[in-house]
Amino acid sequence: MDEILYYDRYAKETRTEKVYGDKALRWTYGTIAGKISLNALVKRAAFSHWYGWRMDRPSTREKIAPFIQEYELDSSEFVRDVDEFANFNEFFYRELKPDARPIDSNPNSVVFPADGRHLCVPDLSQCDGLFVKGEMFDLDTLLDDHSLTNRYAAGSLLLSRLCPVDYHRFHFPAAGVPGPTKLINGPLYSVNPIALCQNIQILATNKRCVTELRTEKFGNILLLEIGATCVGSICQTYADGQPVEKGAEKGYFRFGGSSTITIFEPGRIRFDRDLIENSQNQRELYGRVGDRMGVLCE
């Protein structure tokens, strides 16, 4: 895979992704030596925990300012000043000011749960592939629950990919009452398209968390957080059984790229046109937390 292209909803143009750690990714997934290293070490939790520990060291503060400059981040959105972060990990899972991510006010809308690059599947029973035509992960493996698989087999799915440069807190796409989170252990492969184009099943087998959100308008929504290489941990900040508003924080990822998956019951949501059109072309759409991704089916 050469360049990674995505559609920027705000600029209304196709852009080339600037990949953090591009050379290391291409070596790991594109060379024989890299693939040996991947299976022997990189995919294992111990490697990611070690890397997360490194990002907690005080010396990593020196990486923050160059990172902000290199990836053109807007530090005025941060709750804390740049010099207040004790290490790179604190900066990585930073909080943003509420007005930096306003929540769509339409009572019949659902919103993106994370900043990132998104792909949608309006009907999982007729999916033609995500990053490559004909290539889709196995839903039963992903959910590890046959009853859930049967309920959502013809449902709608949103895959949200968070790059290391993105805001790394994830949020509720609709108001409702969340249940407990179920942890399903697995390896920690990269979720970058460079890796996913070689093996889309990574999304279904990586370490993941599953939460069911009960809503009045949209039925029960499945919310999944997918771990990946160098993700120190998936941290949940919500309270099980307590009602949440649309756009409320659910949790955050510590250092590393990662993904979330949102699955709706059949016939509940109509995704926005730009999201559908780009997804049909296996091209991700960039959108931010709180912006509309679709509306209630009437």
Automatic annotation (TrEMBL):
<dbReference type="Pfam" id="PF02666">
    <property type="entry name" value="PS_Dcarbxylase"/>
</dbReference>
<keyword id="KW-0865">Zymogen</keyword>
<dbReference type="GO" id="GO:0004609">
    <property type="term" value="F:phosphatidylserine decarboxylase activity"/>
</dbReference>
<dbReference type="GO" id="GO:0008654">
    <property type="term" value="P:phospholipid biosynthetic process"/>
</dbReference>
<keyword id="KW-0456">Lyase</keyword>
<keyword id="KW-0670">Pyruvate</keyword>
<protein>
    <submittedName>
        <fullName>Phosphatidylserine decarboxylase</fullName>
        <ecNumber>4.1.1.65</ecNumber>
    </submittedName>
</protein>
<dbReference type="InterPro" id="IPR003817">
    <property type="entry name" value="PS_Dcarbxylase"/>
</dbReference>
<keyword id="KW-0210">Decarboxylase</keyword>
